[in-house]
Known about the structure:
The complex is a heterodimer of chains A (about 600) and B (about 350). With about 600 residues, chain A is an alpha/beta fold. Helix content of chain A is about 40%, strand content about 25%. In chain A, the strands form 4 sheets. In chain A, strands 3-2-4-1-10-9-11-15 form an 8-stranded antiparallel sheet, covered by helices on one side. A 7-stranded antiparallel sheet of chain A has the order 5-6-7-8-12-13-14. Chain A has a 5-stranded parallel sheet with strand order 17-16-18-19-20, with helices on both faces. In chain A, strand 13 and strand 14 (about 230) form a beta hairpin. Chain A is globular and about 80 Å long. With about 350 residues, chain B is α/β, with parallel strands linked by helices. In chain B, about 15% of the residues lie in helices and about 35% in strands. In chain B, helix 1 packs parallel to helix 3 (about 95-110). Chains A and B meet through strand 15, helix 7, helix 14 and helix 18 of A and helix 3, strand 8 and strand 12 of B.
Amino acid sequence: xxxxxxxxxxxxxxxxxxxxxxxxxxxxxxxxxxxxxxxxxxxxxxxxxxxxxxxxxxxxxxxxxxxxxxxxxxxxxxxxxxxxxxxxxxxxxxxxxxxxxxxxxxxxxxxxxxxxxxxxxxxxxxxxxxxxxxxxxxxxxxxxxxxxxxxxxxxxxxxxxxxxxxxxxxxxxxxxxxxxxxxxxxxxxxxxxxxxxxxxxxxxxxxxxxxxxxxxxxxxxxxxxxxxxxxxxxxxxxxxxxxxxxxxxxxxxxxxxxxxxxxxxxxxxxxxxxxxxxxxxxxxxxxxxxxxxxxxxxxxxxxxxxxxxxxxxxxxxxxxxxxxxxxxxxxxxxxxxxxxxxxxxxxxxxxxxxxxxxxxxxxxxxxxxxxxxxxxxxxxxxxxxxxxxxxxxxxxxxxxxxxxxxxxxxxxxxxxxxxxxxxxxxxxxxxxxxxxxxxxxxxxxxxxxxxxxxxxxxxxxxxxxxxxxxxxxxxxxxxxxxxxxxxxxxxxxxxxxxxxxxxxxxxxxxxxxxxxxxxxxxxxxxxxxxxxxxxxxxxxxxxxxxxxxxxxxxxxxxxxxxxxxxxxxxxxxxxxxxxxxxxxxxxxxxxxxxxxxxxxxxxxxxxx
Amino acid sequence: xxxxxxxxxxxxxxxxxxxxxxxxxxxxxxxxxxxxxxxxxxxxxxxxxxxxxxxxxxxxxxxxxxxxxxxxxxxxxxxxxxxxxxxxxxxxxxxxxxxxxxxxxxxxxxxxxxxxxxxxxxxxxxxxxxxxxxxxxxxxxxxxxxxxxxxxxxxxxxxxxxxxxxxxxxxxxxxxxxxxxxxxxxxxxxxxxxxxxxxxxxxxxxxxxxxxxxxxxxxxxxxxxxxxxxxxxxxxxxxxxxxxxxxxxxxxxxxxxxxxxxxxxxxxxxxxxxxxxxxxxxxxxxxxxxxxxxxxxxxxxxxxxxxxxxxxxxxxxxxxxxxxxxxxxxxxxxxxxxxxxxxxxxxxxxxxx
Lengths: 608, 353
């Protein structure tokens, strides 16, 4: 996901400044690099770089640019790491074409080879650059800009929203849309293009939404749209937006948190597609040969690490130590050559995890980073990188990045289990096949549990405390569920191994005290049944997250049941996370809190 | 183009002979809340489809088509080419922000049709969204069981509406789903109105007091409250928010109007009476010293002095419903769940219900 803007004409301010403002409104769509291009006197000037919009602007000064027309981009890396070269806009060989793009050109390799064979020279690793060269190729062959665009669109496969500047026609911004959103904003003497309405809402609220397959251009005074070579009349499609821009960026969900919960099937599909089996085997060899494996992270990432810890030590017998990254000092004396550390950090910038990585590497430990942000500090300072591809997460409470971490770590654990002989080839194939199809199951889970979670939230909303209990692999999921409830609903929640109840915690339980049980599908499940009964005996409000196959034994025992589809133990951790996220979300909303902005919390913690 | 699908199936008939769309709620007819929601997202022309006679200066009134989708099909013949139709059903009430949520998805994603949904445990009585495994909307089916309930709010492009009217399946169009996580109320009993009042007032964050209200310097108000034009708050009355006091309402000496009460236009609240969690329709008289809790008092009702409603909690608090034009005699007691029929006279000192 990236954000694009285009502007032609004058809004009464310097174009570079306007483009920067528009891009800042799209920063939720990506923020690893940014750039703008403007055309002035038949010359295109491109300024771009790696970093947040404000950082890049400070370095290359795009607010200083002036011109007739311009385009801008804020990037979330998919093809090629974040770097100055890979930042958009991209240009052709002659510098007369500049293009920004959101989406994925699926046939870009093939196009790139053809273009390179024809003498085009590429300067980036992105799929986007082929668009600029392809356009150049057609213009050089004598086509007009619009004809060239028509041909380009017919050659591209995949998803895209494109804005393109051509020095030969400086008052135009060309565009094309397929699947990725693209909106035209109509002004008086100027027109905008953007991925999302809030980008230009400060300047105009008259919009035209483009449909798939449409392309054309805007000039300061007109809009021309075509589809399949036929002009499209868009006059009747002009709409006036008179609601708040803040809502618009959530794509229609009331909060980013709910949007990101619902995005999980896509996030997991992209994460799976980004996994490289060769790399997984290489890393699993590393783990298998390691003297011991340290696993670290903070908050939600630590919980993902605990699942991995259980898979490696509990199922495979590796010598693992999982710890909160802020507590790394305790393990320093254990660490040395031959050890491996797995450092999990969504942002790749978490300061405690970074400190642990630095210290352990200095001691000779080789580090595998798991992060959602390509080339962020922790992956950069680590020996190996594994990326989740969940897309930018705006809600402070981690949701889709957590399940994406679980997917990556499950895949790595399964590969290690194959290498270590714990799993046979067939079993390994089954587990990987299950992970591959998990996005569909996640979608089914969201659909089937959301109503129930909303209902249970109404019972939870008036409570002051809750326990989250489980055993084995379910324990990290219980911890994560409790964390979610704490951070967004502000209800005190505590997770502990269910067997600990009678050693203290049960003293707090009285009539109506909510106790959530996360039932795994393994040897721990029998014992958990007993734990449910002991809570029932004290009148607790018992709520269970239960895989379908255990419904018969738990269904009647519990006050409320959330049933998830069946899955193998590792994959089940992903499915069981979902109702707990929804439960926290709806409880927060019912209590009148904004789950996107939990008090006292920041998305990325960069102070110790 | 805004369309309000406004059938009156008699759910609220006790409260007003003016039919469901015209029941007064927080200062305006229920129908106006739907029209204002649509207006907030840009609708400037309105169609109201109803099975009861209503006359509106700013909307075209057509016959209800038998159900929601049949009504939309009827509308397809009269909406202008190229317009977006946003339809809202009076069977469900959603707050203003939900309209914005719907419109935002619809516009930014470029869908043909966008439906607003919420996850509920029981979708019966409404339409449930039937999706494929990859999340594509295939159809809207009669509700039943848990799932995503259609909240009666749909944005649809005119050309897509014509296709639907021509018999096209919903699944053949580009259909988007907007998810609503906030509150909504199914309007299927008079109690639904109390729920709307409660939720709307609960979200009130600041007071607004008309400069045309006449307020005794000895009246006390604790916010948030809305005091409308020409309301009169007499000495020593207490208004403890969140509360709505409508146009021309009189609140007598020593009366207490407290949480989640809505007093509609021209009602009179007698000295030392107490009203809480209730909807008092226009032109009602509540006699001195009466207590009205968790109740609905229909248009023009006279509640004589000393009447007490009793409440019980059955999932929600239940008091009494007093039908339009009824009269409740002095010092009567209305037991929980009492329904005083329209025009009925309850003798003084009755234990009713």
